[in-house]
Amino acid sequence: MDGIDHLADERNKAQFDVDAMKIVWAGSRHAFEVSDRISKLVAADPGFRKDNRPMLGRNELFKNTLRKAAYAWKRIIELHLSEEEAAKLRFYVDEPAYTDLHWGMFVPAIKGQGTEEQQQKWLPLAYKMQIIGCYGQTELGHGSNVQGLETTATFDPQTDEFVIHSPTLTSSKWWPGGLGKVSTHGVIYARLITDGRDHGVHGFIVQLRSLEDHSPLPGITVGDIGMKFGNGAYNTMDNGVLRFDHVRIPRDQMLMRVSQVTREGKYMQSDVPRQLVYGTMVYVRQTIVADASCALSRAVCIATRYSAVRRQFGSQDGGPESQVIDYKTQQNRLFPLLASAYAFRFVGEWLKWLYTDVTQRLQTNDFSTLPEAHACTAGLKSVTTTATADGIEECRKLCGGHGYLCTSGLPELFAVYVPACTYEGDNIVLLLQVARFLMKTVSQLGSGKKPVGTTSYMGQIEHLMQCRSNVQRAEDWLKPSAILEAFESRAARMSVACAQNLTKFTNPEEGFAELSADLVEAAVAHCQLIIVSKFIEKLLQDIPGKGVREQLEALCNIYALFLLHKHQGDFLSTGCITAKQASLANDQLRSLYSQVRPNAIALVDAFNYTDHFLGSILGCYDGNVYPKLYEAAWKDPLNDSVVPEGYHEYIRPLLKQNLRTARL
Length: 664
Ligand SMILES: CC/C=C\C/C=C\C/C=C\C/C=C\CC/C=C/C(=O)SCCNC(=O)CCNC(=O)[C@H](O)C(C)(C)COP(=O)(O)OP(=O)(O)OC[C@H]1O[C@@H](n2cnc3c(N)ncnc32)[C@H](O)[C@@H]1OP(=O)(O)O
Ligand SMILES: Cc1cc2nc3c(=O)[nH]c(=O)nc-3n(C[C@H](O)[C@H](O)[C@H](O)COP(=O)(O)OP(=O)(O)OC[C@H]3O[C@@H](n4cnc5c(N)ncnc54)[C@H](O)[C@@H]3O)c2cc1C
Fold this sequence. Notes:
single chain; Butyryl-CoA Dehydrogenase, subunit A, domain 2; six-stranded mixed sheet; three-stranded antiparallel sheet; 11 strands; about 10% strand; binds flavin-adenine dinucleotide
């Protein structure tokens, strides 16, 4: 536009090396270079334009997504992109598509649950996209309760086949992404039945559509489930409905790493836990945590830049009004979200490590860390997606009226993001899994079994149950030991209180149901402790770059003290801290906001998002918001004509009629 950087003064205030922070954010120099190169490539390519999405009808929108996915694949092949680069390209194209499920769930399900032989047969086809797959688990009647799924896979020893069938309306597959219009195959979850016996839910590779003309194969009824929340948004995805009428598949299409059915129809279980059938969900939950930091940082980047541009009230002697970012209330809403974005980034990095570690152990039949990996992925998926969905909406409000415009990028980001609180496990259902894990850990404390990993803090249970914080001045809250002790004792005391209350029930399951709201709060406290402690651990690493460590320390303290303030009811009622100490934490938080304020723009610049990816006039890099908003308004299709279509039918007759009434 005018070529001026309207945020230049803000950028000049930064007290740290932004380029070094970009590398910390990306995870490594290599990751930064890949991300930077691919994001620019996508931004520069008109084939990946996305600003017209909210205006398109469903058919047009969907066709456009098909075009982009095919074009993305063409570019991946032409440019010989590596797997890492291709994944980055899909990420920066920023449009939910069937490819997310193909690469994100179908391929991992075969890798995780297929035998070597099955992997050799199916993966090359999937890698070349000669087949396109989805993940068909959820049904109309059951999503959370996987054991309640009704689709059946009955072994027929006569033909050496499974017969896949949908016995009821509620057994219809419902929701799988990519299923509605695109997938040729699916990993379909169904109850395995051999010789009249039900062996529970297992995964099967089922071909759904012809590879010749894309028509559904005999016995298959398939379609899209309809429009979802928001314009554009997740409607680029063909979430589907699917029914089977006695569809036959060869026996070797049951994913047989965990259990097998022999030619004679004998059911056999390997010595791996049956929970590995759920392994794909553990994998995806882990990626969702990393994705939460991307979505939240994007919203925060928009809200922070706009808060520095926007001025309201406070003009002195005819001078400029105050930047809204200087209001303490704005900082108190915005900076904890900025800190959360960094916190989720680092816990996401750690969770990726944990997942890799558990996968390597599984290869050598060491299943000992699987329960913890399940609890961590489930809990962190839940806590980070809830905070991110709420955070995106808060960023919209932080941008005032303009945040409600589609051109702010925030409505679409919110609409695309909110289902993350539901998919891959409803957040409450997942927290209840964490609570079960915690109750088990507490119940084993007396047995001499040492808690390990993320529950190792419970090893000092006597201390944590009676310790009192020794914070006396606001600055004392800057000590990692003070923060950790408060968070550990809060989490431990909440879990122990639940465990004690559970003993009052003769039926433990009844007790668990009755106390479930308290159990969820205990699970949240445990997960928040993990996030805080992983941020603190990150700060123990070597962090190069002028001033970078200081900024991260400030953000870590903001994240922890904001949580402490928000959940002070927990900390006070469990006696971990006093009212005076809670108030000191709040004093410290205010001074941390002042420390972050001059660095705020640079801290969001460190995300290194292109204007294309942000898709937001309010968040544009140069801060030249008003001319861009004004120009964009005139491009709205409603402004194609000065007098709107429909004037002669609906406005003119009304005005004429009112004129007659007025004359009377
Ligand atoms: C547009 C986006 C673009 C890019 C985004 C980038 C990244 C994001 C990537 C992808 C996102 C994109 C699209 C989303 C696609 C969405 C897909 C889906 O939603 S797939 C369907 C997911 N469904 C669920 O998550 C269902 C939730 N339910 C369950 O997981 C389980 O049934 C439940 C955990 C509730 C367990 O139920 P329950 O009946 O109590 O237990 P069960 O008897 O089955 O098992 C008991 C035993 O097993 C342990 N356990 C349970 N789950 C696991 C597991 N996964 N791993 C290991 N162990 C497990 C459980 O703790 C218990 O153990 P104990 O007996 O107590 O020891
Ligand atoms: C956009 C989107 C994409 C999806 N993609 C796929 C896909 O590709 N493949 C696939 O298989 N599935 C997919 N799903 C389905 C998704 O995994 C399920 O919707 C999800 O697991 C939640 O299950 P549900 O719908 O059965 O919710 P329900 O379990 O019916 O939840 C309804 C309410 O009941 C509560 N509740 C349920 N059980 C309990 C309990 N035990 N205790 C306390 N409260 C409880 C929940 O907290 C919630 O408030 C997708 C869903 C969405 C929204």
